[in-house]
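> call design_seq(struct)
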């Protein structure tokens, strides 16, 4: 359409015609994205989740490698949308998903354990995130704030973890920007304040979700102890990720049933 096109609008009075636009980064239209969305950081994990766990999954976007897929799980429409790494990208994706009609967002990723009590492959279900990141600080103008998960989603996730017999921990995580800046001393300091581990997206997702009236949660599989620079063996982490995704999807089923009732 040429610039300045003045086709008749819905009222037939010749109002300027505005085409329905996709979002800038998540190139999708309303209706492409399900109300319930899993948010992995890694596009390869997004594809794996869609192909492994969802029925009839179709790709609705690949723009900027922010891969997005929609299918069903036990009859419930579910999307899987890549966020990329870090809060700036996660905040953009969360905002655009809100505009696309998402209502419940569950981050599914990995974290570094702050204490040896969080074993490799264990599931961590965040109740809130210490916002040690720049994105939430800018969004809040430096105001004190506690980005928290939605209780309903945490409750459903804990129920699902127990049903699966998945080793899990429930509590605080810390969201940080600098992956390689964490030290064992830093980790143990924050473990003494109740932090279970460190990840890179939850605080921004929680904040944008709160601002936009969405439910949000963060489930992560422990990839290593901060005191140990080596990641766990691939098979251990893969098993932890599988448990995490199954718990997240079963939580979605519970939430969908509650929402329908």
């Amino acid at each position: 359409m040429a610039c300045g096109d003045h086709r008749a609008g819905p009222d037939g009075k010749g109002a300027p015609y505005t085409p329905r636009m996709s979002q800038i980064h998540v190139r999708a239209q309303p209706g492409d994205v399900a109300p319930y969305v899993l948010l992995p950081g890694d596009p390869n994990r997004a594809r794996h989740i869609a192909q492994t766990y969802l029925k009839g999954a179709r790709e609705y976007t690949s723009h900027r490698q922010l891969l997005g897929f929609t299918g069903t799980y036990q009859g419930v429409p579910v999307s899987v949308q890549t966020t990329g790494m870090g809060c700036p990208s996660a905040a953009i994706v969360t905002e655009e998903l809100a505009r696309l009609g998402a209502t419940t967002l569950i981050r599914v990723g990995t974290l570094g354990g702050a204490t040896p009590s969080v074993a490799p492959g264990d599931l961590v279900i965040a109740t809130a995130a210490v916002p040690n990141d720049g994105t939430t600080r800018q969004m809040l103008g430096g105001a004190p704030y506690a980005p928290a998960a939605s209780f309903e989603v945490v409750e459903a996730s804990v129920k699902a973890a127990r049903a699966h017999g998945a080793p899990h921990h429930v509590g605080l995580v810390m969201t940080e920007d600098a992956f390689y800046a964490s030290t064992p001393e830093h980790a143990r300091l924050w473990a003494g304040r109740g932090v279970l581990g460190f990840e890179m997206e939850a605080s921004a997702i929680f904040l944008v979700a709160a601002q936009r009236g969405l439910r949000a949660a963060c489930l992560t599989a422990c990839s290593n102890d901060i005191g140990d620079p080596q990641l766990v063996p691939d098979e251990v982490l893969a098993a932890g990720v599988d448990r995490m995704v199954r718990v997240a999807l079963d939580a979605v089923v519970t939430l969908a049933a509650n929402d329908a009732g």
